[in-house]
Amino acid sequence: MRRLFIFSLIFVSISALSFAQPQKEKPKTKILLMISEQNIQGPSTRWWLSEVDLSTIESNLARLLIEHGYQIIEPSVVNKIIKRERPLRVVDLKDKDVVRLGKLSNVDYVVLGKAVASAGSNVLGSNMRSCFANVTVKLIRVKDGVVIAYLDSIGSTVHTDVITGGKEALANASVDLAAKIISNLNKEEVNK
Q1: Which tens digit of pLDDT belongs to each residue from 97-132?
Q2: Whole-angstrom Cα distance, residue 75 to residue 187?
Q3: Three-class DSSP category at 151
Q4: Which long-range contacts (CB under 8 A, 24 or more apart) does 17-26 make?
Q5: Would you say the pTM of this structure is higher than 0.90?
Q6: Is residue 39 within a helix (H) or strand (E), and if so which, with residue range?
Q7: Cα gap 72→31, rounded to integer Å
Q8: Which phi-psi region, left, alpha or beta, contains residue 69 (left: φ > 0; alpha: ψ -120 to 50)?
Q9: Which of 38, 45, 33 lies closest to 77, judged by CA?
Q10: 153-166: buried (b, 16+ CB within 10 Å) or exposed (e) per residue?
C-alpha cells in the first residue's frame, strides 16, 4: 500500500512538472511587404530603392497584419541585404529576385505589388474631390517561390485636398487587402 502511495505521489509530481513547463510559442509567420505606391500628383515610391520607409498602403497593412499575429520585416533589416546585393535594387523586381530576397531575409511570404491613387471629379455643389485607390498584389510563398494568391483591392474617399484624399483612399484599400491576405495565409496554415 505504501508503495502504491509513493508511486502515485511521484506520478503526480512528474505530471505537475510537465504541465508547469512553459509551452513553446509557435513562431510567427514572417512577411515582407514590397508594394510600390503612387499617390495623386506624386512620384512612385519604393522603399527598396531607399526613397522612403513603408508607403501608406504598406504601413497600414503592417499594422493590420501585426494585430493578427504576423511578423512584418522592416525595410531597415532588408536594406542591408539590398546594399550587398546590388542587382536587387531595381524598380520592377522579378518574382525570382523577390524570392531570392525573401530567402536572404529569412521570411515566409512576400507581398509584392503596386498601389495607385487617382482623383475623380468634384462632388456636386462642393469643393470636395472624389479620390480612388487601386492595389494589386501577389502573395508569394518564399520556400518554393509559388504565387499562392493574386489579390486586388480598391478604396475611395472624398476630400478637399487630393493628396490627403489619395492617402485616405490608399488606407481604405489596405483594410480590404489585409483581410484577403489573412484569409489566404489562414488557408495556407490549414493545408500544412
Answers
A1: 889 889 999 999 999 999 999 988 887 778 888 999
A2: 27
A3: strand
A4: none
A5: no
A6: none
A7: 5
A8: left
A9: 33
A10: bebbbebeebeebb
